[in-house]
Design brief:
The complex is a heterodimer of chains A (301) and B (259). With 301 residues, chain A is α+β, with helices and mostly antiparallel strands. Chain A has 11 helices and 12 strands. With 259 residues, chain B is α/β, with parallel strands linked by helices.
Chain lengths: 301, 259
Amino acid sequence: MSSQYLMIVDGLCPACSSLGREVAGISQIRPVAEQSSEAKSLQESVAFTAPCLVEIDADSPPRIFSGWRMRLKLIQVLGWRQSRDWLRLLYKELEARQSRGGMTRRNLLAGAGIGVLAAVFNVARAAANETSPRGTPSVTEIGLEASQIALASAEGQQAVANWGPATSSYRIVSDGHLATALVHSSSQVSFLLEEEPRASFSLGLSGRSLEIYAVNGALLATLDVSRKGARPIYPDSAGAHPQNTASFGVCLVGCLGLSIDTGCILNCAEAALNPVNGLACIVCAGANGISCAWGCRGHLL
Amino acid sequence: MSSLLLVDPQLGRYGLGALADQVPGAIADPVSVVHSVLALAQAADVLNRIQVAVDPVPSVVAARAIGCSVVARLLVTHKVDRILLIDPGSAFTRDVGFHEARQIDMRLAERLAAGLQKEADPRDVAIWLDPQIGEGRFPEAAYELMARGLSRRPEVREPLEQALRATELPRQPYDDRRWRPGPEVAEQLDWLANLREAASSEVTIWLSRDAGGRPPSAQRDYLANTLSGAAIVEQPWEEYDFMADPTALATAVRDWLVS
């Protein structure tokens, strides 16, 4: 039996309601107000805070996705073509957080991206000397010496090669998950490495636009932000399609709920193109590798 | 006394271990019996067994596929002196450059740009979506499908299918949640990182053609540049050709031993 998805929104928050209206046009996801009796009934079995995505499956307890994990799940549920709406949803979430957390568009677009990090990760900034328990959302400057794992990672090295030396770094706690952000001030780009599921991408600022890059530097999309709202602009998809494998990888990681490396993503891309090539995907991604690869296949086509 | 250990955690004596009959002094390391389909879990199982074994490991070791991760670790920890790696997997190193080289060899970008040449056979798709897989077992038809994906030659597919059935069935039901290696294991078993650290001249890597007959030229060039002391050899055969007739591979291993 396939899963059902509910988007829990805060009906008292106008911006969150607009998020709810946004998903109302998507057939696979049903928006439910947090204050509704349906949401309250659900809260008796599982705790959550709006906005979040609830996956309901007859064979297992409801699963809650919020923050970055919600976005990964949305990509998985919607498929890449539809999930071009994902960026619109992301922006709606930013708007929702701005209205809730007092963030302004000015600080969203300010500096080298830390305002964006805070908004995207649904958190408030913490002072450099504050420590954050894992459950408390925060963005804390930690210094490059404390970011050696991210800097030494293959993704981090590629980010430095793409965007120049990291000049500052931040620890992000969101939705119980940890991420490290490296800010490359020479190029006004921030690289993010989330630990579990391992995922990475970069955010850049260009004028009033927010640019989203895959780890290999390929531009996935640009959010053109103005007073009228956000307009996503997509690069020409002709050519070598590195962005396709990147978005396929994000979808695959979201589906598996596991950290896998680039080589495994390529193996599973092979399997998605032709299921005969399945074994190499299974031995690195696990028994569910092919079904997830098949579900994410739309990203490659 | 044995002088060469043949390590193939996935296929054991059905895989590289089959060469033991044709290479004097060689012994086949047993297949991993851990209840996991994950190659990394199998490698961790075999590495642990070798490390705690009472008998010393031969100082010269040849390995295939995920076995390469095991012996690269043995080299960097000074348990062995000389190693031969046959077709180390790109999924088991985090080296970005090697992934890019493999992507070039796979012609993945060109194939994506060209679009699908033909739609997948729905019968093949159905095999991978079989509910048995969720219960940790491959459906019977999966072995033929896997063999078909690993070689285009019918004479190779038949023994390969038998080998996969013989080695995978005892590992089932898979429990990948229980046996999933943590990130520290993936790091410990990153074969390319270990080879960089070992910086040994006693490393030989053979790269075969893939199942589509595509040569591993970019991977060869990348490894030759990144591992200056190692001998990197592009072989003329396809990865699983030895399953039909191991003579060419066995001859090459014998020559390597005396080189």
